[in-house]
Amino acid sequence: MIVTVTPNPSVDRALDVDTLEVGEVNRAHTTHVHAGGKGINVARALVRHGLDAVAVVPSGGPDGARLTALMAEQGVPAVPVPVTGDTRTNITLQERDGTTTKINAPGPRLSAAEVDALLEAVDAQLAGAPRAVVAAGSLPAGAGDDFFVRLADVAGRHGVPLLLDTSGAPLGQAVRAGGLALVKPNEDELAEMVGRDLVTVGDVVAAAREVIALGTREVLVSLGAHGALLVGAGEPVWAGGPALVPLSTVGAGDSTLAGFLAADGTAADRLRTAVAWGRAAVLLPGTEVPGPDDVDVDQVRVVLDPDPHLATKEL
Ligand SMILES: Nc1ncnc2c1ncn2[C@@H]1O[C@H](COP(=O)(O)OP(=O)(O)OP(=O)(O)O)[C@@H](O)[C@H]1O
Ligand SMILES: O=P(O)(O)OC[C@@]1(O)O[C@H](CO)[C@@H](O)[C@@H]1O
Questions:
Q1: Range of the domain at 216
Q2: b/e per residue, 107-133, with b = 16+ CB within 10 A?
Q3: What is the pTM (predicted TM-score) of this model?
Q4: ipTM
Q5: Total domain count for the chain?
Q6: Which residues belong to any copy of the Carbohydrate kinase PfkB domain (predicted)?
Q7: What CATH number corresponds to the domain at position 6?
Q8: Which residue's CA is minimally distant from atom 21 of ligand 1?
Q9: Does any ligand 2 atom lie closer than 6 A to the CB of residue 89?
Q10: Which residues in the chain show pLDDT less than 70?
Q11: Relative to the CA of 34, which ligand 2 atom is closest?
């Protein structure tokens, strides 16, 4: 069982347009609606592969009800924590050439009592001794930048590994507090965390090692079209595949993390599966997550200890 926590979930609405004309009336030809938010997407991808997952989410107003209904439709077990504010809707504008424009709403402000209730709901799930807990996405106002530090305390008390995918100050605080099993920044998020540009593989590996030195076991850095790097105690590993034209990149990082959790074996095996799931996600519309038939592990190439001088854009 994997428990996921999404402090700021969303109903994801994707509108497909041929070409987006900024400042004009654009007419979409298709819309896709999915239960969204990073932790929910991880749970959805795991469930589509027949694995056990449960998603803990604050839920409020009509869109909160819609969110939990969408999860139920997809057979994703949810633990909704009632909140007074309205759950947000996030918009994706998807162009035919693969260009993705996303507008994420701020989401409702949570009261201190609602934040405590969310942490208590996670605490109750962790009492069942799941294999891991994944916390992912941005924080709503009111949660406090130390929310993931508090969550790490809860996970630590239960001895459950915590995997974190977030950004900005909440990521920085959690990394500095230590005790994380894994963080999954993309290249920009890692660069922001260490406060410098990352150009080469060596730059990314050095930044990941700084994170590890602060008390995180592994760093999975997703590099968009250029695959992903896994840095842990051993030698770094890169995985990626042939170029493809994305249908929607939304949630690709979440499917990557789900694939990583689903896989067994060496670091290379787990990274290969993670990248295969991420690649499969970008070939699906909106925030659709891949199932077993979508994933092609054989297309993914793995390189142990990649050349540190290579620019990540050349991978
Ligand atoms: N354009 C692309 N072509 C091929 N693979 C891609 C592309 N974009 C993403 N991927 C795959 O998906 C993985 C995750 O992508 P990315 O690094 O963009 O994650 P992210 O920024 O966390 O995304 P999100 O926040 O939308 O989930 C990559 O490691 C890669 O395997
Ligand atoms: O605003 P956040 O929490 O950073 O990101 C939310 C979000 O963009 O992330 C998911 C894709 O990873 C989407 O389902 C969702 O709309």
A1: 2-314
A2: bbebeeebbebbbebbbebbeeebebb
A3: 0.98
A4: 0.98
A5: 1
A6: 8-288
A7: 3.40.1190.20
A8: 186
A9: no
A10: none
A11: 14
Question: Which of 67, 90, 192, 288 has most ligand 2 atoms within 8 Å of its beta carbon, as the pocket-test mutant?
Answer: 90
d(CA 38, ligand 2 centre) in Å: 5
Whose CA is closest to 271, among 308, 224, 234, 227?
A: 227
What was the pLDDT predicted at 98? 86
Question: Hey, whose CA ends up nearest to atom 13 of ligand 1?
Answer: 278
Model pLDDT, residue 143: 98
Summarize pLDDT for 44-65 with one digit per residue, the tens: 999 999 999 999 999 999 999 9
β-pair type (100-103, 88-95): antiparallel
**Residues annotated catalytic, as ranges:** 254
Sign of the torsion angle spanned by Cα atoms 307, 257, 136, 11: positive
Q: Which residue's CA lies nearest to atom 5 of ligand 1?
A: 225
Contact 265, 230 (CB under 8 A): no
Token pair 């030195």 in the structure block, residue: 213
